[in-house]
Amino acid sequence: MTSTTPSSTVTEKAATTAVPLNDLLAHRWSSRAFDPQHELSEPQVSALLEAARWAPSASNTQPWRFVVARRGTAEFDAVLDTLAGGNQVWARHASALLVVAAQGTDRPWALYDTGQSVALLSVQAGHEGLAAHQMGGFDRERLQAALPDGVTPLVVVALVRRSEHTRLPEPFAGRETAGRERLPLEQLMLSLRLPTAS
């Protein structure tokens, strides 16, 4: 798998939205076609983590914690080895694997707040011309054992530049070119069950 594709030529899959959205949101999607030669710069890593750091959290508890494992390091190999087999096929070409963990998961909003930090990081990744593919398919017990006490791993994020020239095996190749879909808004809306007047 090789690629020398500049980010400006990578196929974009803009969402078809009900109303116009910010371009960073409309163009965010989870690519698996990675440029295996790409390396994250220190300013990019700092920008991603800084975006995550400024996420809102309940009572400013800031429960998010991160491990940045760069390709070519023992840390990267250790994280990669905990991923589900299907994820390993393409995630091994990421520039870095970011382990996202939460501290104090006994607090009711720690998981929600940590998710918000990843959301902001993913938007910053788009601004940096990067893909940020979030993965829940990993061995939590093994990754937990490699982390400091008191934190719980929630997701691993592959960070890299996309490449339209990367060849993926099926079913991943088909997923890369498939259209993007979301449920219509009306299916997402709920009604409150209000008490009836006596």
TrEMBL record:
Transmembrane portions of the chain: none
Keywords: Oxidoreductase
Any Pfam family: Nitroreductase
SUPFAM superfamilies, sorted: FMN-dependent nitroreductase-like
Occurrences of domain Nitroreductase (ranges): 26-75
Gene3D superfamilies: NADH Oxidase
Superkingdom, taxonomy of origin: Bacteria
Key word Oxidoreductase present: yes
Record-stated family: Belongs to the nitroreductase family.
Name of the protein in question: Nitroreductase
Native source species: Kineosporia succinea
Lineage start: Bacteria, Bacillati, Actinomycetota, Actinomycetes, Kineosporiales
